Amino acid sequence: MNMAGAGGTDLNPGQLWDAIVAGAGPAGSTAAALLAERGLRVLVVDRAIFPRDKMCGEYLGAGCVDLLTGFGVELRDTHPIRAMRVTAPDGTVFNAPYPEGRSGLAIRRSQLDALLLENARRKGAACLEGFRVERLLLKDGKVQGVEGRLHGGEEKQFLARIVIGAEGRNSVVARHLGLFRWNRSHRRTALGLHYEGVLPVNGFAEVFLGAGLYGILNPLGAGVANLSLVVDHDASLSKGHAGAYFAEALGRLPALRERLAQARPLEDVKVLGPMAHHAARASADGALLAGDAAGFYDPFTGEGVYMALISARLAAAVAGEALRRGDCSARFLRSYDRERSAALGGRYRLEAAIQRIIRHPRAADLVSRRLREREDAASCLMEVLGGLAWPRALLSGGFLSAFL
Ligand SMILES: Cc1cc2nc3c(=O)[nH]c(=O)nc-3n(C[C@H](O)[C@H](O)[C@H](O)COP(=O)(O)OP(=O)(O)OC[C@H]3O[C@@H](n4cnc5c(N)ncnc54)[C@H](O)[C@@H]3O)c2cc1C
After folding, report:
1. What is the pLDDT of residue 5?
2. Which atom of ligand 1 is nearest to the CA of 272?
3. Residues 197, 86: Cα–Cα separation, whole Å
4. Can you say whether the dihedral through the CA atoms of 172, 20, 35, 44 is positive or negative?
């Protein structure tokens, strides 16, 4: 267990925190840092001891990098991504470059998340690692705090005026409040691992589309690359035979298999799925949900961390105002749902529209051919998905004309 409060003080049992943040991923650490910056007493807890790994493509768009810099996070060991190279099911290849002078980057999640937690600690949040939240403390339907267990097994309770659930897809806060919902129409599973000896394609992340699956290869420097394969969810897919399943899926993406011909896997295949879910609401009496805890659709567009940061910023602003007014009621916190949906609704709709296209190989081939001919349109898409422009930029004549 690693227990350190603001100024390194121990956590005082029975203390009433202004805010408890459950989960110290990008959403949780960011919400905690922003609340602490307002001078609030914040405790962020995580079941893991950092640095810890998280299954992810490890790509950050340019807009996400801008947000992190704005939050005071000093990124290290990063690798620039200047463009996406997409290979369609029929072999058509197109490039989607960032505008001149802009780029995204690749960074190990173990590194990124440790830097974010460090930032929260530096801003004055108390951080408790190795503490798993198991239940909410509720009184008359109002969230009062969290209850859980330290790695050693010891049970603990922490009280707060507001709780932010940011524990990702397995959010206890969302489940305990009855808000968690699986997405029944988009059930996909990810298989992921790192390779070494991958011949670099300078500054490109590579996307490979196939029938019922896709793969994304993201370069992490020195020939190491992160590979995510996303396939239709198969309930029988367990860790036990993930390797065989992975080999079969890779065989259905010949261009990707070719790219990996000289490469060696660095670890066993990890499996995560189904992925798509959402919360019926992201606010309740005394609680908010941020990041994946409030919903996740599909990793294809590489916007998960960006959206987690945006929702954490909104959650911190609404929670900060609720604490200032002394009103953490469901009624007041409801404004968070409206703001979150205004900020992110367009991105979720765009993700769903892209999925409708790539699910059909012929549609994916057709769109890829158009984008190969119109690099300006592909670049416009990259600006939107990279968090540099709003999705409505795709409704402009310039982008739509590529398809007319
Ligand atoms: C295969 C795959 C590839 C992806 N690729 C990309 C990509 O390239 N770029 C991108 O931006 N996004 C990507 N994403 C999405 C991205 O990983 C998530 O959107 C992002 O991690 C969400 O951040 P978060 O803070 O909400 O949750 P998480 O990162 O999941 O963090 C949640 C934290 O809560 C902790 N926790 C969980 N349960 C408890 C508990 N009970 N008590 C205490 N702590 C708990 C966990 O240990 C963890 O530290 C990908 C996702 C998948 C599945």
Report:
1. 43
2. 53
3. 21
4. negative
Q: Is 389 in the pocket of ligand 1 (CB under 6 A)?
A: no
Q: Which residues 6+ apart lie within 8 Å of 144 measured at CB? A: 136, 137, 138, 159, 160, 286
Binding site membership of 298 for ligand 1 (Cβ less than 6 Å): no
Indicate the pTM of the whole model. Answer: 0.97
* Percent of the chain residues topping a pLDDT of 70: 97
CA–CA separation, 172 and 154 (whole Å): 18
Q: d(Cα 278, Cα 291) in Å, to the nearest integer? A: 10
Answer for the pair 363, 350: CB distance below 8 angstroms, yes or no: no
Q: Is the CB of 347 under 6 A from ligand 1?
A: no
Tokens of 48: 């893991």
Ligand 1 atom with minimal separation from the 292 CA: 26
Domain boundaries, the chain: 2-54+110-183+277-350
Architecture of domain 2-54+110-183+277-350: 3-Layer(bba) Sandwich (3.50)
Q: Point out the ligand 1 atom lying closest to the alpha carbon of residue 228.
A: 1
Which residue reads 């300006």 in tokens?
376
Q: How does pLDDT run across 358-380, given as a tens digit for each residue?
A: 999 999 999 999 999 999 999 99
- The CB of 316 under 6 Å from ligand 1? The reply is no
22 phi-psi bin (left φ>0, alpha ψ -120 to 50, beta other): beta
> Distance from the CA of 153 to the center of ligand 1, in angstroms?
24
DSSP string for residues in 18-59: EEEEE--SHHHHHHHHHHHHTT--EEEEESSPSS----S--E
Say if strands 42-46 and 59-60 run parallel, antiparallel, or are unpaired: unpaired
